[in-house]
Amino acid sequence: MTKETREVYVFGTCLIDLLRPEAGMAALRLLERAGFHPIFPQAQSCCGQPAFNSGYRREARAVARAQLTAFTRELPVVVPSASCAGMIRNHWPALFAGEPEETQARALAARTFELCEFLDRAGLVLQDRGESVRVALHHSCSARRETRTTASAERLLTQLSGVECLAPAHAEECCGFGGTFAIKQDALSAAMADSKCDALLATGAERLISQDAGCLLHLQGRLARRGDALPVQHIAEFLWERIA
Amino acid sequence: MNVPGPMTALRARVREALGKAPVRRNFRAAMDGIRAKRADALPDATDFAQRRARTAAIRARALARLPELLERLEQRLEANGIRVHWAEDAAQANAIVLDLLRQAGARSVIKGKSMVSEEIGLNDVLGEAGIAVVESDLGEYIVQLAGEPPSHIVAPAIHKNRHEVATLFQAHHPQREATEDIEGLTAEARQVLRARFAQADAGISGVNFLVAETGTLVLVENEGNGRLSTSAPPLHIAITGIEKVIERLDELPPLLDLLTRSATGQPITTYVNFISGPRRADELDGPREVHLVLLDNGRARIHADPLFADTLRCIRCGACINHCPVYVQVGGHAYGSVYPGPIGALLEPQRLGLEAGGSLTSACTLCGACGDVCPVAIPLPGLINQLRAEGVEPRTDSPLPDAGRLRHRGEALLWRLWAAIYAHPRRYRWLARLLTALRRLAPRRLGAWTRWREAPRPAARDLHRLAREAGFSDE
């Protein structure tokens, strides 16, 4: 394959951009390691999901439209978030239905991939250099039901010889982040976080990892408030740390 | 004085429910059990996908021909000797039932389970008219004694454990020996209810499916109370929504199969009742009169709305409720609606209007668990999200009551501001620069977020800058 065809776009997501850029950098490095040439368009911002899930579709469309102009070449778009990848892939076509950009949005949706899914399909080989560690993997609902890429994350982690990956009880249940839900129904969101934190801590894991920064921000914030010491890491950061 | 709005009231009920640790434990245990049963009954995802494609198609087909099927249903039912009554709303339905009972001189009613009767508030209306109503479904009987509404559409008393039921029974059946044993409690209810069946002047029940081709009312249940309620008293009044009709009898088995597997994990219920008319001349038992009240109460309007018509595919199995991570935390009463959980968040805002019911769409993380298990493939999360949009940025021709009424100036302004920044790369870059530069000044308190969680702090350098500095190309 030529270098040309191995080019990929990276859509970093707004949460990672401003709050967890190390995860985005790790995603870029992992893609390089997998033999790709990642491109990070500086004109990108957000997939529009926060407004979309709050009912403000016009505003969501305006923001999503701006991304269409940032990712114009016909390259795969790799997203280190199942939530944002799912938004683009599953909801942009409807968001742009009947709009002039509909075809463009559909095309972009069709070439959007969640990071683990993309690395797994690309056959990335991971050589574990880290010390043995037990991690709890929190599957986001987006990874489970929007992009359906939980298995990809698990396959990547199984390659790491020193990593024991633990699943919490009620693993299939939402952690209670839910975007603006965390604000609008804050008590409910915290109660759900508590159930999730209890289950995660009960695994005896030394670290919590996930494919989505949204869940992690919420869980990290709640763990810290509860005084529980469970370090939190985006899966991209974790994978890169193990093999770098 | 300010009357609290629906959103404030919902949040208050949620806070109250979250404070009741024993009830929350009951819900957790009950939902874990019922989810495991469903998983055992539908173990293969591919098989489930195939089955539900078929059931969804049957329901969609029926809804596509709803007026025609209802007409045929009425003809067949009348030919079978079942009188059909049409009710546009709750008041009409209640009046019809009350009239029928009065004409028959009925003073006491035994009821089988019916969520539609909850929807129209029938028990209160009959009580005020001096007619004694006894619920015969065990769960409904329990919540009736407790003076509470059902907390679940299939398992009305799921919020109570056996100790609470025992206490309730001791208070209401003082002549009986106290027990906390589940079999003992069931036997006690059975014996108390047995007498009520014999005495009742009329039976009122719900319906699971209406078969247009044969004019049959189909009713599933596990306790035999449905059969007794509909056959022991001389008068049977069935009440249900107009959407329950299907075309043919041979469409019924796949629906029943997925209904019971989804609801309770059973391949079939203990009783499957096919009611096709009153007692005939040569028959020894059965009611002398059978009536069906067909309720609209907003359903025709939902049916006419292309965006939300799929709501009516619902067969009321409760699987969406059982798998909802919000419901399992707070239970059904916290919703404050007749139908709780995901189906409530979808149906109630359409039925009651967005002003009264729209807040329910906020009690959802859009996690998708409900949509995954729905036996008729209703895209619940997508539709709940659509309802949010109808609340703040409705379609110009939206038929939803109170469309757009959930738009608040402050929130709308915030989203416009957000879009004005995030849709413009240069402005967004400025925001990122500002937040990262001033990260040490980031507030420690961020409203509702930091009521429960620590505040995140912006990164020292954002990803745009890190990627550029590391030499990753821009295009």
Defining key terms:
heterodimer; A: 244 residues; alpha/beta; Rossmann fold; four-stranded parallel β-sheet; 12% strand; B: alpha/beta; Fumarate Reductase Iron-sulfur Protein, Chain B, domain 2; six-stranded parallel β-sheet; four-stranded mixed β-sheet; 23 helices; 10 strands; globular
Describe the structure.
The complex is a heterodimer of chains A (244) and B (475). Chain A has 244 residues and is α/β, with parallel strands linked by helices. Chain A has two domains: 4-120, Rossmann fold (3-Layer(aba) Sandwich); 126-243, Rossmann fold. In chain A, 51% of the residues lie in helices and 12% in strands. Chain A is built from 13 helices and eight strands. Chain A has helices at residues 14-19, 21-33, 49-52, 57-68, 82-95, 102-110, 115-122, 141-146, 150-158, 181-184, 186-202, 213-226, 235-243; strands at residues 7-10, 37-39, 77-79, 112-114, 133-138, 163-166, 207-210, 232-234. In chain A, strands 2-1-3-4 form a four-stranded parallel sheet, with helices on both faces. Chain A has a four-stranded parallel sheet with strand order 6-5-7-8, with helices on both faces. In chain A, β7, α12 and β8 (232-234) form a beta-alpha-beta unit. The mean pLDDT of chain A is 97. Chain B starts with 5 loop residues before the first helix and ends in a 6-residue tail after the last helix. The relative contact order of chain B is 0.12. Chain B is 50% helix and 10% strand. Chain B has 475 residues and is an alpha/beta fold. Chain B has three domains: 6-35 and 313-392, Fumarate Reductase Iron-sulfur Protein, Chain B, domain 2 (Orthogonal Bundle), CATH 1.10.1060; 58-297, 3-Layer(aba) Sandwich (Rossmann fold); 412-469, no CATH class. Chain B has helices spanning 6-18, 21-41, 45-64, 66-79, 90-103, 115-120, 122-128, 138-146, 162-172, 182-199, 225-231, 252-264, 299-303, 319-322, 327-330, 341-352, 354-357, 369-373, 380-392, 409-422, 425-437, 449-452, 463-469; strands spanning 82-87, 108-111, 132-135, 202-205, 209-211, 216-221, 235-241, 245-246, 271-275, 289-295. In chain B, α16 runs parallel beside α19. The interface between A and B is large, with 73 and 67 residues.
